[in-house]
Write a structure and sequence with these properties.
The protein is mainly beta. Strands 5, 8, 10, 11, 12, 13, 14 and 18 form an 8-stranded antiparallel beta sheet that branches. Strand 12 and strand 13 form a beta hairpin. The protein is elongated.
Length: 282
């Protein structure tokens, strides 16, 4: 455990003492892609009147004995089937520095879909059409399906793995004058943006678009299945540690995964998402 601190003391009903504290778990020995997490340590008061960690030293233990004689009180997760056939967003979704309003997001304009109206790019500090949820495990899969018909290279939509405006990966659909609808991955690393693929991948001009991303520890990989049931990798394995608290600028939020849409023409071209499935694979 790294960065342990900000502790709060508690005495149990049976006279045992514990510290609840913040920490980070590095995925590769250094980078904490899950952001701040909460841990607990068992403590003891010694004869000198000071509080000590039960195991000694000043480093947190990864495994700690549970309190005696106290019944478990498990947290009840709110179930969501991952479909947007609802009138409210799942509680895990967050927006980026702006309230969620009908100006840019709607669950009613097309019933059964989450509609995002394209606005500013993923590096913008202002009007982004982006919702995302926190990554809560080292190994996850995220899958979405959506309909999107861009008519300009300035219109994009897709699946994003996001830390902040300066560090993210974005599998996006856009439009090319010769190829029609295309895929590419935008990588923004320490504020510098580039496209991962040397040329766009052409996809059918009509029909739903399916995308998936897979986090396995420090690595991240995108997949697509457009006009097929088979998942096909898009691009190489990517360095997921750029989406961590300890890369570029020290932070504490951890990585997020989500959906977004952009339209630099000002036409607010919409993208209609039918689902967002988040699964922890280990």
């Amino acid at each position: 455990l790294q960065k342990a601190g900000h502790a709060s003391l508690v005495e149990t009903q049976n006279g045992e003492w514990y510290l609840a504290h913040l920490c980070g778990r590095p995925v590769d020995g250094k980078h904490c892609t899950l952001g701040r997490e909460t841990s607990i340590q068992k403590c003891a008061w010694k004869n000198d009147g000071w509080l000590y960690l039960e195991q000694g030293g000043n480093h947190p233990a990864q495994f700690v004995p549970a309190p005696r004689g106290i019944e478990p009180q498990p947290f009840q997760e709110t179930a969501w089937n991952g479909l947007f056939d609802t009138d409210r967003l799942d509680i895990n979704f967050q927006s980026l520095r702006r309230p969620i309003t009908g100006e840019w997001l709607s669950l009613t304009d097309r019933p059964g879909y989450l509609r995002l109206y394209g606005q500013e790019p993923t590096v913008s500090l202002f009007k982004q059409s982006l919702i995302a949820r926190r990554v809560q495990a080292f190994d996850i899969e995220v899958e979405t399906a959506f309909e999107f018909n861009p008519v300009s290279f300035q219109q994009m939509a897709g699946l994003v793995a996001y830390y902040d405006t300066q560090n993210h990966f974005y599998l996006r659909v856009s439009h090319d004058e010769k190829l029609g609808r295309t895929l590419n991955i935008i990588a923004t690393d320490a504020g510098e943006s580039s496209e991962i693929l040397s040329s766009d991948v052409s996809i059918p001009d009509e029909g739903a678009i399916r995308m998936k991303l897979r986090f396995n520890g420090p690595s991240l990989r995108f997949f697509q299945a457009v006009g097929s049931d088979e998942w096909t990798p898009v691009g190489p394995e990517l360095n997921g540690t750029i989406l961590s608290d300890d890369y570029h600028n020290l932070g504490f939020t951890g990585a997020y995964v989500g959906l977004c849409a952009q339209d630099l023409t000002g036409m607010r071209c919409p993208a209609d998402f039918s689902c967002f499935h988040y699964r922890e694979t280990i």
